[in-house]
Design goal:
heterodimer; A: OB fold (Dihydrolipoamide Acetyltransferase, E2P); OB fold (Dihydrolipoamide Acetyltransferase, E2P); 5 domains; 42% strand; disordered N terminus; B: 307 residues; alpha+beta; Arc Repressor Mutant, subunit A; 2 domains; six-stranded mixed sheet; three-stranded antiparallel sheet; 12 strands; 36% helix; globular
């Protein structure tokens, strides 16, 4: 025992001595225990724990501390929110409550009522001088009513994603200084269209690009509602709107819309105007003209989103075929096309006759007011009438695009910011080889991967064997799943089908370890298409390469690029 | 309310020095919001890709009686600490078990690892970083070299962005006037408020070290961790006739990889050459007094940079 103690003692002795040098009155045994605790319990070796141990004993002894007392509690009294730092605790400030909403929230498994809303500083000053922050009230304080002026003592600042807000804690004290009228103030500033959230109430200034009277038929057959659909734009972007109230502003008018609701249909946000929405003419001589806005409102294939309406786009048709179908006993037809532009490729469906034939291809079309639908992530430009199509005499871009080798190179972050795309090429580092890579069994009817001999949709079936890899790649702060088919999986893993089959018998863990040793942290070049939905991005690969990278050469290139030679 | 979706957090490439020197963390207000570490270069990470020499891997008993593996990975700039618990997926546990046997027999192994970042805060407010591995694999020297370059490049970009940010106010508005990618704005603002002035030279040096090793200029890739002892001079003399100052200079020039050399390393080397503690301390004081070395942080010694 004594020897064991002596050994471990000597292990720390230099550090203990270092601490004692600074704080002579500390006990060597206590210091030893502290180092041991850091190492054994928190896996922090003595050299890294030294500073903490020093600080601990410095604060234990009442010697004047040399380190900055960061934790010291001192009430910070401020007049303006802008004086607060992101880590301020125990804040005292006088504010006006603007809004107050209640919400049930699950906190550590317990249902609790909290309140949230907006508040403004400088409650006794002119409204223009005030700054507005969000707050959360964890203490169910009844004095927090819209319009009331209160002094909050003991609040803390919360910062998340760069946005600061005030936390009113259970221990905070609220002093009512002036009772509120209960009415809430509207102080929303206009937001750029490109920066609109996916839901919530907003204020927007924009120019009307188009309007169209429309009707919505009630599902219960009790009649229809007149609505107005349209589009508005500012120089950051454009968005469709739906007005449930009469809308008389003409195309080209510049308007300010206060209290519009953003709703997202499929992947496409839309502004909704209702009874409480205020729309008024707006004056700004510098605002972009309607021609400029229309010009920039042309979409590209890479921009297309499921559920969009009123889309204007220029495309090159690479394939066209007629499809016949029967409806109400009558034979009808539509045209199904493959289209392409410099940003990608997708489908187009035309429910009307067209003025060109397969021999004329490639043709360039200007399409207006199209609807966008999507199937398995591939956008389909849906055209209801031939009036929406104009044939262009000249190619809209230089050089013809070959659809077979048309892979548009785009970094992962750009792909993630857009909609689903076909024919893309990108790169990334493998950060995961998922454990369901390898031999799989697919449902013979829907090709879904079966689990334990059973398909989610079709029940028990005799499965069809297949091989696939499920990877995750990252690049520059963006992440994507990567599905690799059998052919490419065999190439990437340098394994034969028989090798994979053998692994299914001999041990799946060994296969995963083997695949990781070949792929994990490796750099890949990927071709394929993307599917983007609320779960993030997935790439269905048609080809994947592991380019060989020569470190010497790369290092030389980096030095040259950085001017470090 | 918006439906909560658990979206996978992207990873960052990072050298050990940047990760280990971090002590700012962030968590969203919700119970299941991910946690992040924000580094001195303003990088906000929940998951990182690291590589290096698997320097240590040990089994430990936890307080509730289960086993865990703890280990450390060394890259040219420092150490990553990690732990693997029993509930980890089987392929990871199996691999760790195999690696443990090999590390125990002192075999040098290079690994690549994707891991979640973790932090621990001690009672007195000190923050320490560590890793919880998700996937590990043994890698070749070539892949290690390429990882070093990827991580060096990512670090270089962060240094550039940090320097750019110094020209504007440390606010979201200030950064919006720069060409720094928007995804870094919030974390740079947070880091600038938290860390204040950051010595970029250390990180630049780290990038250089990574490049050097990737180019094969330093034989440190598959060799065991640096010895704590200087190579013995010929003739195992108990008392060398080197002065203590000479030894201290040798130790620092031999072991300093950018962050300095620890008191303990200097002390044990000097003592093994026959100098006692007191005279070694005197030697250190002397060199500091002469302006040859300095102690930028407690217990760490470096040569004074001469311009």
């Amino acid at each position: 025992m004594a020897e064991a103690f002596f050994m471990s003692d000597s292990k720390y002795s230099d550090y203990i001595e270092a601490v004692l040098k600074e704080i002579p009155e500390a006990s060597a045994d206590d210091i030893h225990a502290a180092f041991e605790k850091y190492e054994n319990e928190f896996y922090i070796p003595p050299q890294d724990a030294l500073r903490s141990v020093l600080r601990k004993f410095q604060s234990d002894s009442d010697a004047p501390s040399q380190s900055k007392p960061r934790q010291q509690r001192q009430t910070k009294k401020v007049a303006q929110l802008s004086e607060l730092g992101s880590e301020d605790k125990d804040v005292e400030i006088e504010v006006m409550v603007v809004t107050h909403n209640l919400r049930q929230q699950l906190i550590r498994g317990e249902e609790r009522q909290i309140a949230f809303g907006m508040l403004q500083d400088l409650p006794w000053e002119n409204e223009e001088k005030r700054t507005q922050w969000e707050y959360k009230d964890w203490g169910s304080n009844s004095q927090l009513l819209p319009g009331s002026i209160v002094r909050i003592e003991g609040a803390s600042v919360n910062e998340y994603n760069g946005k600061r807000s005030l936390n009113i804690n259970q221990s905070s004290r609220i002093v009512l200084l002036q009772e509120g009228s209960g009415s809430s103030l509207k102080t929303e500033d206009p937001i750029d269209i490109s920066a609109l959230p996916n839901d919530g109430y907003v204020t927007v200034v924009g120019r009307v690009l188009s309007t169209k009277n429309d009707q919505i038929h009630r599902k219960d057959g009790s009649g229809s509602i007149d609505i107005v659909r349209g589009r508005i734009a500012d120089d950051s972007g454009h968005i469709g709107f739906l007005s449930w109230e009469p809308f008389s502003h003409e195309v080209g008018a510049l308007i300010k819309i206060t209290g519009a609701q953003v709703r997202t249909f499929r992947d496409t946000p839309e502004l909704n105007f209702g009874r409480t929405t205020k729309i008024e003419p707006y004056h700004d001589s510098k605002f972009a003209s309607i021609d400029d806005l229309k010009e920039s409102s042309f979409a590209t294939i890479s921009d297309l989103r499921d559920g969009s309406r009123d889309t204007d786009i220029i495309v090159q048709v690479t394939e066209i075929m007629q499809r016949k179908f029967e409806r109400d006993g009558q034979e009808k037809h539509l045209w199904s096309a493959q289209v392409i532009d410099p940003t990608g490729q997708c489908k187009m469906t035309i429910w009307d006759d067209i003025s060109f034939s397969e021999e004329d291809l490639p043709v360039f079309l200007k399409v207006t007011s199209a609807r966008i639908t999507a199937w398995q992530g591939i956008p389909d430009i849906t055209v209801d009438s031939s009036h929406q199509i104009t044939m262009l005499d000249e190619p809209a871009w230089e050089g013809e695009i070959d659809p077979n080798s048309h892979f548009v190179e785009a970094p992962l972050d750009e792909l993630a910011a857009g909609g689903s795309r076909v024919g893309i090429q990108t790169k990334g580092i493998v950060v995961s080889v998922k454990e369901d890579s390898g031999m799989i069994s697919r449902c013979p009817e829907c090709r879904r991967v079966m689990r334990e001999g059973s398909c989610f949709e079709h029940g028990e079936r005799e499965g069809v064997e297949d091989i696939r890899l499920r990877l995750i790649i990252d690049d520059n702060g963006t992440t994507s799943s990567l599905l690799v088919n059998k052919e490419v999986s065999l190439k990437l893993s340098e394994m034969s089908e028989a090798d994979f089959k053998k692994s299914a018998i001999e041990g799946h863990d060994a296969l995963i370890m083997d695949l990781r040793s070949k792929l994990l942290t490796n750099f890949l070049e990927v071709k394929g298409r993307t599917i983007i939905d609320e779960q993030g991005m997935m790439i269905i690969a048609t080809d994947v390469d592991v380019p060989s990278r020569d470190p010497q050469l790369r290092a030389t290139e980096l030095r040259a690029a950085w001017g470090w030679n | 309310m918006q439906a909560r979706r658990i979206v996978r957090q992207p990873s960052e490439l990072m050298l050990a020095s940047e990760f280990a020197s971090s002590h700012l963390h962030e968590k969203g207000p919700g119970e299941y919001d991910p946690t992040f570490i924000i580094t001195k270069l303003g990088c906000k990470v929940n998951r990182i890709v690291v590589s290096g020499l698997l320097e240590r891997l040990e089994v430990r008993e936890t307080s509730n009686g289960t086993q865990m593996y703890q280990g450390q990975i060394r890259d040219p700039t420092g150490l990553f600490y990690f732990s693997v618990r029993e509930y980890s997926p089987l392929p990871l546990q199996e691999l760790i078990h195999q690696l443990h046997e090999r590390v125990s027999s002192s075999e040098p192994i290079l690994v690549g690892m994707v891991a979640k970042t973790r932090w621990y805060q001690s009672e007195d407010g000190g923050v320490y970083t560590s890793l919880r591995p998700e996937e590990i694999t043994e890698i070749t020297r070539q892949r290690y070299a390429n990882w070093l370059l990827d991580a060096a490049e990512a670090t270089y970009l962060r240094i550039e962005h940090w320097s750019q940010s110094l020209e504007v106010d440390a606010t979201m508005e200030g950064l919006s006037t720069t060409s720094i990618p928007q995804r870094s704005h919030q974390s740079i603002v947070a880091a600038r408020h938290h860390y204040g002035e950051v010595d970029l030279e250390i990180f630049k040096l780290n990038v250089m070290q990574a490049l050097d090793i990737a180019e094969g200029k330093i034989e440190a890739v598959t060799t065991p961790p640096p010895e704590i002892r200087l190579p013995e001079a010929e003739g195992e003399g108990e008392t060398s006739n080197q002065s203590v100052e000479e030894i201290i200079r040798m130790v620092i020039s031999h072991f300093d990889q950018g962050e300095g050399v620890q008191y303990q390393t200097i002390m044990s080397n000097a003592m093994s050459k026959g100098h006692d503690r007191e005279s070694t301390e005197e030697g250190l004081d002397q060199l500091i007094h002469q302006g040859v070395i300095e102690e930028p942080r407690f217990g760490w010694f470096v040569f004074v940079q001469t311009q």
